[in-house]
Design a protein that fits this description.
The complex is a heterodimer of chains A (614) and B (381). With 614 residues, chain A is mainly beta. Chain A has four helices and 33 strands. In chain A, the strands form five sheets. Chain A has a 22-stranded antiparallel β-barrel. A five-stranded mixed sheet of chain A has the order 1-6-7-4-5. A two-stranded antiparallel ribbon of chain A has the order 2-3. In chain A, strand 9 and strand 10 form a beta hairpin. The radius of gyration of chain A is 24 Å and the shape is globular. Chain B has 381 residues and is mainly beta. Helices cover 5% and strands 53% of the residues of chain B. Chain B has one helix and 28 strands. A four-stranded antiparallel sheet of chain B has the order 3-2-1-28, with no helix packed on it. The longest helix of chain B has 20 residues. The relative contact order of chain B is 0.13. Classes of the chains: A mainly beta (614), B mainly beta (381). The interface between A and B is large, with 54 and 56 residues.
């Protein structure tokens, strides 16, 4: 007798990247999860499907991550394993990175410097870009929505023999001119948000050669964005605009070396940022370049596990202050030792960073432990302790006026422990995970007034602050497939973060929650799919965010719910899908950052075509 | 005869008693009826949060109330025709507005906009006219450009005219049909004819670095507070408004300044006294830090009267604003909380100290974020 089991799509159980310790708390989003979210940018994706808090200045403004009480510069973003943050600002605007390029995402919570170096204090986001296949593939999509939103994208992939390639492009625009109430006017008025338009153009290309045991890839990404900076909604826009242009070329290859594997990679990235503000007659352009070359050797230790050793060299330059640069080098050893049922993950990395004079040397040790007490039950206990750091950005060191060349790196230690449970059946999957963490950060860099020029206070950064952050992260994911073809999936992330300033006992900020770090966030989503029809909903509940240092002033909690419905027609060789999405369906008026209103309820429509059917 | 003599004695004794007890037989002693109903402290707020607010302190029951009003970053306050003028900077357009509130309920009643530059101070040459000094914009080397004074029609809050003055115009004083505008970056005074709204003279103030605050005293002299800078000492100039020449100079002992670059001096009409603060202790002006001192200048005889020291405290730093209530004879100074490094914290509530005339602390109360300017609401009883 044969039984026809329903088709199973396994969600969120990709093998994690080799650079992520198994003892760390990780949220994995595979290609299906990315596609099913309906997110257009990585900022939207992480806001909806990860435990990270995305701090966004309005719907079209800068979007950066906050994890475990740490900010955007303290959270590392890696694209195919290589750092992507602008060395001048120390962060990447995630709203400029479209999900079109993304194959999968892994969000690693906590200290990651033992493997990834500077910037991995609060967490590390691993973005994997699309992989071309030799079979021909063509995808096209277009859509429009409220407030002048238009977008169109196309992707083509194919290959022959050992060679394959992929090209993709996307154009997106929005006017961002939704209505909001301006209570700063007398009398208060409801106005359209002005000066918030965005135009972005993105191209991505990749060529791959894949042999029996080795492969080589060459990839390129170029993005250009022009957007208005409307500023706080207490007044009309002054017409400030920003042009972001980012070009990036990277290559990586894998070679067998004895019983092990050698991975080589290199990248070059050039960022051009122009800022223009007519009222102050400011028109400033800065150029930064970042280059990096990595070599990693992964070697099996018979049945004991694996050991990975690597080295990195990098050179960064910025046009700031007449031209500044820095050289960096690092080497690391990272092992996984299986002593069943316990697994140990020791690692250490030594970074040396500097340009003029003696380099700054920072060791980053880490020890992770994972214990599976029962061989037949998917219960795992884990713990991790590690050091992480952040080297100062070019702006912090050299910005004129105010930069402080002698800044030290921020220094943090994280301890975390967690338990996870996974139940997998042919027609169902359930994962539950809980993690408690504590992080101590010293030498935190903050800007403070230092001197005056022509009656203007000049602010300078200094290593003067300390933070103690602790909290709890809970996540649940599940999926059930029924014989009728009905599939139900969903998940939730809850975080509680108490991130306190611990710098100066005489200050009212001492013991207070850091500004714009919500104490609680709760994200909940579900999806129902049946014969090509899918309906999904995503809810975010974000708690109070203080915007003063002494907890005297706060933004109210907000709740945002998005609903999305899609229907897919499969036909000979292809698939056509129509999507409708209503964002902020409860029509809440909310701000993530004070005076940067988010749009009220609005809809977008999208048509997708793919050939052949995936 | 005896009766007449007795009556005379009684009348004399009654007159002496009345003189001793200060009874106002002729109803002319108006000062005794003035009552300070509220001390209004404008809290600038945090510039990026645009969260200016007002703290109202009642001297009669020693209570302070924080009023969250929808204004951006407050630069200054002014009182005119039972209206409170709140002068603010708005970040988005690098300009600002002046919102008027009724002094009874503190409800917004009007708004002056289209200033095109951040407004700094407002003065009132006539009942229905306002002069607003507007801040300069800065180039990449932090050199300020020449700026303007906006002429405001207070009947409809329109701006019929903008008058070019010098760089970084700040304080403004009106007397004898003239308005005197301190151009702090130039070290000059622009003199405007209040009838025609044109600049009639731009007077150099030799030896007066960084002129900022301008007042008119009881003798109709124009007081200009030169804040000092670098090696140049601070001083107070007294000018004859007719000849526009310096009649007197009073040197102060330390650089004058507010840590929030707001109210560094206050002139009390009732007491005919000028108060100036050396409030920028933590990072200084032109490399010279302030001393935390408060200078009291007698504007009647044009001389330094006394120097007070603000009481030191590990939790507070700098001085941001000063105001003297001549009715209660209380001196109000506002201070900032310390931040991570012990320097000033501009993103937390401040503190107001109430001092007596000898500089002793009478009481203190919490203000909003970054207190910046003090005015007094008064009534007659």
């Amino acid at each position: 007798m044969s039984v026809a089991l329903p088709e199973v799509t396994v969600e969120g159980v990709l093998d994690r990247s080799a650079s992520i310790p198994a003892a760390a708390h990780v949220t994995t989003l595979d290609a299906d999860a990315v596609a099913q979210s309906g997110a257009q940018s990585v900022a939207d994706l992480l806001s909806m499907r990860s435990g990270a808090f995305v701090k966004q200045y309005g719907s079209t403004g800068l979007a950066s991550l906050s994890m475990r009480g740490m900010g955007g510069t303290q959270t590392q973003v890696l694209l195919d394993g290589l750092r992507v943050a602008n060395p001048q600002t120390g962060q990447l605007d995630l709203s400029l990175l479209p999900t079109l390029l993304i194959e999968s995402v892994e969000v690693q919570h906590g200290a990651g410097s033992a493997r990834h170096g500077s910037g991995s204090l609060g967490g590390t986001v691993h973005l994997e870009t699309l992989r071309p296949q030799t079979d021909p593939l063509l995808r096209a999509a277009g859509g429009r929505g409220a407030y002048g939103e238009r977008h169109v994208s196309a992707l083509a992939s194919g290959g022959q023999g050992a060679w394959s390639g992929l090209v993709a492009g996307r154009y997106y625009r929005t006017d961002g001119d939704f209505r909001y109430r301006n209570s700063f006017l007398v009398p208060a008025q409801t106005l359209r948000r002005d000066g918030a338009s965005v135009r972005t153009m993105t191209f991505f290309g990749r060529g791959v050669w894949r042999g029996d045991e080795r492969h080589w890839r060459l990839s390129g990404w170029w993005t250009r964005a022009r957007r208005g900076l409307p500023g706080p909604a207490s007044a009309r826009s002054g017409g400030a605009r920003q042009w972001d242009e980012l070009g990036r070329l990277w290559t990586d290859s894998t070679l067998p070396l004895g019983a092990g594997t050698l991975e080589l990679s290199a990248q070059g990235q050039r960022s051009r940022l122009r800022y223009r503000n007519p009222p102050t007659q400011t028109d400033r352009t800065t150029l930064t370049t970042a280059t990096e070359a990595d070599a990693e050797l992964r070697y099996p230790l018979s049945t004991l596990g694996t050991i990975t050793a690597g080295t990195t060299v990098g050179y960064d330059r910025a046009s700031l202050n007449g031209g500044v640069d820095r050289l960096s080098g690092a080497t690391f050893v990272d092992a996984t030792l299986s002593l069943a049922p316990v697994e140990l993950e020791p690692a250490v990395r030594l970074d040396a960073i500097g340009a003029h004079g003696a380099p700054t040397v920072v060791p980053s040790p880490r020890l992770g432990v994972r214990w599976r007490p029962f061989s037949d039950v998917g219960l795992t206990l884990r713990g991790l302790v590690g050091r992480a750091f952040r080297y100062p950005t070019f702006n912090e060191r050299y910005y004129e006026p105010g930069g402080t060349p002698g800044l030290r790196p921020e220094d943090g230690w994280t301890t975390e422990g967690g338990v996870s449970f996974r139940l997998a059946r042919p027609d169902a999957l359930l994962t539950v995970e809980a993690t408690a963490f504590a992080t101590r950060l010293t030498d935190k860099i903050v800007w403070r007034p230092s001197y005056e020029i022509s009656g203007v206070q000049v602010w300078s950064p200094a290593n003067v602050s300390r933070v103690y952050s602790r909290g709890l992260e809970l996540s649940v994911r599940g999926r059930r497939q029924f014989r009728s073809g009905l599939a139900v999936s969903g998940g939730s992330h809850f975080t509680h973060t108490r991130a306190e300033n611990r710098a100066n006992p005489d200050s009212p900020a001492h013991g207070a929650q850091l500004p714009y770090v919500p104490q609680q966030t709760w994200k909940l989503w579900s999806r129902v799919e049946w014969r090509g029809l899918s309906v999904s909903a995503t809810g975010r509940l974000v708690g109070t965010r203080f915007y003063s240092s002494d907890e005297s002033r706060a933004l109210a909690p907000y709740q945002a719910v998005d609903v999305r419905a899609a229907y897919e027609w499969a036909f000979d060789g292809g698939r056509l899908a129509l999507e409708a999405q209503v964002k902020n369906v409860l029509d809440r008026r909310y701000e993530i950052i004070r005076l940067y209103p988010m749009p009220p309820r609005h809809a977008t429509f999208r048509l997708r075509f793919s050939f052949p059917s995936p | 005869m005896r009766a007449a003599r007795s009556a005379t004695w009684v009348a004399c004794l009654a007159a002496i008693a009345l003189l001793i007890t200060g009874c106002d037989l002729f109803g002319s002693n108006d000062d005794d009826r003035r009552v300070t109903t509220d001390v209004v402290i404008a809290n600038s707020g945090n510039f990026s949060a645009q969260d200016g607010s007002l703290t109202l302190y009642s001297p009669s029951d020693s209570t302070a109330t924080l009023n969250d009003i929808d204004v951006a970053f407050i630069n200054s306050l002014a009182l005119h025709n039972n209206r409170l003028f709140v002068v603010d900077n708005t970040q988005s357009d690098n300009a600002g507005r002046i919102t008027t509130f009724d002094t009874d309920q503190l409800g917004p009643i009007g708004q002056i906009s289209d200033l095109q530059r951040p407004p700094r101070r407002i003065a009132f040459p006539t009942e229905n006219k306002g002069y607003v000094t507007n801040l300069s914009f800065f180039d990449e080397n932090f050199d300020p450009d020449t700026s303007t004074v906006s002429v405001v029609d207070l009947d409809d809050n329109s701006i019929p005219k903008r008058v070019d003055v010098g760089r970084s115009p700040e304080g403004i004083g009106v007397v004898a049909g003239k308005a005197f505008v301190a151009n702090s970056a130039d070290g000059t005074l622009s003199v405007l004819d209040t009838e025609s709204d044109v600049v009639t003279n731009t007077r150099s103030l030799d030896g007066c670095p960084n002129p900022k605050s301008v007042f008119v005293d009881g003798e109709n002299e124009v007081i200009v507070v030169c804040q000092g800078g670098g090696d140049q000492p601070s001083e107070v100039l007294f000018l004859d408004p007719d000849t526009e020449t310096v009649a007197d100079r009073v040197e102060l002992g330390a650089p004058i300044g507010s840590a929030n670059a707001t109210q560094s001096a206050y002139y009390s009409e009732g007491a005919e006294e000028l108060y100036a603060i050396s409030g920028v202790e933590s990072f200084g002006l032109g490399g010279q830090p302030g001393t935390g001192e408060i200078f009291r200048v007698n504007a009647d005889i044009n001389a330094l009267d006394t120097t007070l020291e603000v009481p030191q405290n590990d939790e507070l730093i700098n001085i941001t604003a000063v105001g003297y209530d001549d009715v209660t004879q209380d001196l109000y100074v506002t201070r900032l909380p310390v931040g991570d490094s012990g320097g000033p914290l501009f993103s937390a509530n401040g503190t107001a100290l109430v001092l007596d005339r000898t500089g002793n602390v009478v009481t203190r109360f919490e203000t909003g974020n970054t207190p910046a300017h003090i005015v007094f609401l008064r009534d007659r009883q």
